[in-house]
Each structure stands twice: as C-alpha cells, then as structure tokens.
Write a structure and sequence with these properties.
Layout lengths: L23 H7 L4 E4 L3 E4 H17 L7 E5 L4 H12 L3 E4 L6 H11 L3 E5 L3 H4 L11 E5 L11 E4 H7 L14 E6 L9 E5 H16 L12 E2 L8 H4 L1 H8 L2 E4 L5 H11 L3 E4 L1 H9 L1 H4 L7 E4 L6 H9 L3 E7 L6 E4 L4 H4 L7 H4 L4 E2 L4 E5 L14 E6 L11 H7 L5 E9 L5 E6 L4 E3 L2 E3 L1 H9 L4 E11 L3 E10 L7 H13 L11 E4 L13 H10 L1
Parallel strand pairs: 1-11, 3-4, 3-5, 4-8, 5-6, 6-7, 10-11, 12-13, 13-14, 24-25
Antiparallel strand pairs: 1-2, 8-9, 14-15, 15-16, 17-18, 18-19, 19-20, 21-22, 23-24
Length: 548
Amino acid sequence: MVKTKKIPPAHNAYNYPLLIKSLLLSGVRHAPEQEIVSGHTLRYNYRTLNTRIRQLANALTNAGVKPGDTVAVMDWDSHRYLECFFAVPMIGAVLHTVNIRLSPEQIIYTMNHAEDDLVLVHDDFLPMLEPIADQLTTVKGYIQLSDTGAAATGLPVLGDYETLLAEADSVYDFPDFEEDSIATLFYTSGTTGNPKGVYFSHRQLVLHTLSAVGTLGAYKGLPLLRSDDVYMPITPMFHVHAWGVPYVATLMGIKQVYPGRYEPNNLVRLYREEKVSFSHCVPTILQMILDSAEAATTDLTGWKMLLGGSALTHGVAAQATGRGMAIHCGYGMSETCPILCTTYLREADYALPAHEQVAARIKTGVPGALVDLKIIDANGKALPHDGTAQGEIVVRAPWLTQGYLKEPEQGAQLWEDGWLHTGDIASVDALGVVEIKDRIKDVIKTGGEWISSLELETLISEHPAVASVAVVGIPDPQWGERPVALVICAANEQVDANALKTHLNQYVESGRINKWAIPKEIRFVADIPKTSVGKINKKLIRENELSL
C-alpha cells in the first residue's frame, strides 16, 4: 500500500472500535416502544430487548462463558435468537449458529470443529442432540430453550433460558475490545466434503449492517426496508445471520416478527395479523407460501420480498407479482456476509405494467456501496462490462470473510490473487447490472458449447403448468454432457415432455437459446432435492440421475 501522512490523535481521544454493541444504540432511541414479536404469543418493546440482552450477558457470564469461548445456538427463529445475536459477541464470545438441518454426523463435526463450550438448545432439538452428546468433546453445559414447559432431558442442563434471565442482573457494562475479534461462526452446507466454518468479525458485521441500511432503503429503485416497515425473516437465523437483516432492523428500530418454525400457512397468518411488509427467503419457500391454503384467501399486495440463495425463475416471480408482491432479487454467498448485489429498478422499469417488470426484477442486480466487483476469464483477465462477456465474479468488500476456520489452504484458494472468487459466472452491462448465468460447476458443456442451466430453468418455468424445475448436465458419450430437466407440475395442471419442448422451441426461433439446449429428457417428479438451506441440490440430482 502507498504510504501516506497520518494525523496523530489528540491526547485522550477515544479510538472508536466498530463493535456489535454500537448497533443497539439507535433503535431504542428512535422507537423505544416499537415491538419485537415472537410467534403468536410473545411481544415486547425495544427497551425490554436491551434489558434482556444485558440479562443474557450476565446469565452467560454466570454460566462460565469467557471472552474467546464459543456459544452454540440451536433454535427456531425467535426473540431468543435475536438476543443471542447481540449478547454472545458483545461479551467477547463467539456465536456459533448451528445448522439444525445438517445430518447428526455433520452436526457432531461442526460443533467439535468449532470447539463449542456452551449450547443453547430448543426442546425440539433435544432428540437430535441427546444421542450425540457424548461425542461432543468440548461442550461443558447446556441451557434449555422452551416455548411452554421445559421438556425432560438427560443433558447436563444449567437451567431454563427464561429462568436464568429472570435471575440475572439487568445491568452489564459491555467492554471494548479489538474490532477484528471474531463475533460469529457458522458452517456452509456444501455438497462435497465436511461443512466449512465461515467466520465474521465485529468490524465486518457492523460495516455490512451500515451498507445494508443504505442499500435496502435509501434508493427509490430499491424501496425495501424503511423505518415504517414491519420485518419478518423467512431465511433461517442460523444461515448467514438471516442475511444480516436482524442487525439492520434492530439498528433502525423497526417492528420485527420472528415466526419460529417455518410453516407456510403460519407465515401467511403472521404476515396478515402483524402487517408484515418486508421479508426475504429462497425461491422454494416463496413457492410454498404462494401454494399455501392461507395464501389462497389472503391479499398479498404490498408484501416486499427479497429473493436469494438460488435463481428466481420467471414463472415463480410472475406468480408472486400477479398476487401483488413486490419482488426483488439479492446476490451473495455465505462467505460474503452475504449481500453484494440487489435488484435496482430504474424509471423505465417502473413505467412498465407490473407483469412486464418481472424480467428486470429477477436480474441479479447492482453491486451495493463499497462492493468492488468484476468478472474475469479463466486466466484471471478482467472482462468488459458490456452485457455480453461472461466470466467468474470476483469481489472485494470490507465485510467478506477472510478465510475458513482451521482451513488456511481453502481460504487461500477462495482469495486467489487478492479477490474473493465466487464460483459464479455472470455478465455485467454498461449500467453495472449483474446477471448470473450459472455456477461454474453447474454450467453444461455439450458438443463444445456452453449451456446455462439457470437460463433453461427460467424458460421452462414460464410455462403456466410448471411449478418448479431443475436442470442439470449429466455425462454423454457423444456430446460430453447433455441437459436433463426435472419438473414439478403446478397444482391441477398437466403437461407432457413434448409440450415443454415445443414451448422451448419458441426461444430457439427467437435466437435466445440454441436448439441443442433443449433437453431430450424431461422427467416429471413429485419433489426436487434441496440442501439444508432450501437451495436446489444439483450435485445430488446428478448423482441420482446417473444411478437410474
């Protein structure tokens, strides 16, 4: 780096560290009576939130948690989880948000790899945890999380969460420490090998929060989260901090609704009863919401939804738009905290009727503030942002993870040449709009030509009889690979393979795809395999197709 002149600090000047505790300062000032809602039964205000965070800090300290220790949480999305988002890192400990959808073997691996000291566990997960407890080599104790009465357990429980909070002092002076201290840790649910530990510092989380406040609410073309909105996450809090939005919402002092276990009818009821206006989720959950019985009799107009995690097809977006939802897409990954890009609508887009805005709304979007993004070829050469050239997205931003826990070699590979490599292929147009074409590992190479599985999924989804679709490439002795499509039909709809091929042929005639991109095999299925966070599991699909 270039050497520059530095201004020496004044005597006794305070060197303000970027710590998560600072995110709590503003919400209670602007909206002390604003509500935090958990399920259909519990609600309290921001004053109480701040008090409970201090009580939890004392309860954890009384349980023996020290700075540098790791506290694991196994819970549904709740007020307790929100309190842990703050109290655990604010006392200098590390919050490990356990992916409760992993297999028991993977949960054992992640908890031992993280060296968890204390576990906060909901009653629903006791049957999962009790059989493996003797294999958790570093865990010293448990705190029980209950929605009604505490369930019986043989685990060495230190007490019930609410009881421990009630017994704890409501005063806690949160210390200053280095802003680069690790605050949170979670594990990617990758399709190969053991999950990898992704960690973030206080500084990274604060900067991501500040950027997200502007990205999600400051622009006319991206009006998702303002102070008068009501926020309900539909992305698990164990996954990338629910995309970091609980930190944003708490800083802003807006009403927050935590739904507990995700059940589509319950989500719609909470949306209706609590007047939710902003949520985020993966496309598969959106489809489940749209198909739910409650949605059939509920006006969804004005429900702003940020979609990410996997590609949003035109068909699902059109269905949601037709119900009055305001759809935007976001882009990022576990390693990026996660928000990098979001759909940004311009005046010309808003001038169109709602159904004609869908094409713009499902684009990956524009990089947010402080995000340095480019696309490169296989040799690392930067490619032009002309909307045509396609290359791998590489990024820099002040909140990207610096590596993987205890895996320096994989971290070095992630950060090759000083840029974080996403593994996603995209184009970028002259206005900076990013459009994901495919994952490097999912693009289909047939006869020397590249086919985007995401493009095919989008086009197939536009058929009105299609509810969900996944396209993968499998080995072919003649062409190298060939595309295979798995299709779930919409309720009360029927379509056959020939009709879908005819549907795709119109895009051949228009020049959007080549004729060899049309899958010769289209399989109609009842379900499409998903990962633990709801993404389509293409690795498993490929393995299943090869075994047929």
